[in-house]
């Protein structure tokens, strides 16, 4: 067994390059040096451009609005007209979604007079994808012509005032993965995408939030709409009681496993962002032996299915207003 100091001490890799010596058995062992690729180099500009060109050529459309459909909210893409559908596995250099409730399709077409591009299924950190790969489709959207990103997700409600089925418009986030040093922007920065140090204050467009609140009143669902703070954890486990209490003390209203890194990538390339969480379960913040207090994916999917009509109408009406004002 190679000791911790073997490759840094006399006779180690500093002298022998890619071999180290098993001092007990005095045998030379070949060791392959692995240098991790910085996240920002996983999908360089040229590769993103190739994917974007494939989609624009294949659809013969340049989308203005990008939509990321969260768990169980894939029906957002089903209301798109004159749709051109691309399966992820048939798009060059595109990952494949592995989670139930994420169809793995990219849909380009017309919605309320605007050309939109919707992802039926996103990529998550817990699937084993690095954050740069999870948020790569946002850069594809940008190079396709997208100016607005609509990101949706299913989330657990921490705020005790929230009920299952409520919609929380995101006006800020707490980036727990970022606290641990993970960012989709790690590595050398390509200025063709955005600046080295992007600011994230006001990441969520206030004008779009206000328009959505007004639409909620018109739909008669204002009592089930909130404006709050979202946090993304790595998953795939749901949170512990202690973690949820800590998040609530930090001012977090809802928690999930996505969206934040997508928003960071969108703001880096100067896209306007609107995002909301569908509250699919209430997070337990007190200790209990009851199984009913435990979150589960089936519950998330069921609630999303029941509320998808309202979510689709909210998105459609907001797109209508954006298109009317442009």
SSE topology:
Elements: H1 13-16, E1 19-22, E2 27-30, H2 45-59, E3 65-69, H3 75-78, E4 81-87, E5 105-111, E6 114-120, H4 131-134, H5 136-144, E7 148-157, E8 167-175, H6 176-179, H7 206-219, E9 225-232, H8 241-249, E10 254-256, H9 260-268, E11 272-282, H10 297-325
Parallel strand pairs: 3-6, 3-7, 7-11, 8-9, 9-10
Antiparallel strand pairs: 1-2, 4-5, 5-6, 7-10, 8-11
Helix pairs in contact: 2-5, 7-10
Describe the structure.
The protein has one domain (44-325): Nucleoside phosphorylase domain (Rossmann fold, 3-Layer(aba) Sandwich). It has 326 residues and is α/β, with parallel strands linked by helices. α2 (45-59) packs across α5 (136-144) and α7 (206-219) crosses α10. It contains 10 helices and 11 strands. Mean pLDDT is 89; it is low at 1-22.
Envelope shape: globular
Q: Helix- and strand-based class?
A: alpha/beta
Mean pLDDT: 89
* Order of strands in the sheet with most strands: 7-10-9-8-11
Strand content: 15-25%
The biggest sheet, with number of strands, parallel, antiparallel or mixed sense and barrel status, is: 5 strands, mixed, barrel
What is the CATH class name?
Alpha Beta
The number of helices is 10
Binding site for a purine D-ribonucleoside: 239, 281
Pfam family, one: PNP_UDP_1
Function: The purine nucleoside phosphorylases catalyze the phosphorolytic breakdown of the N-glycosidic bond in the beta-(deoxy)ribonucleoside molecules, with the formation of the corresponding free purine bases and pentose-1-phosphate.
Protein name: Purine nucleoside phosphorylase
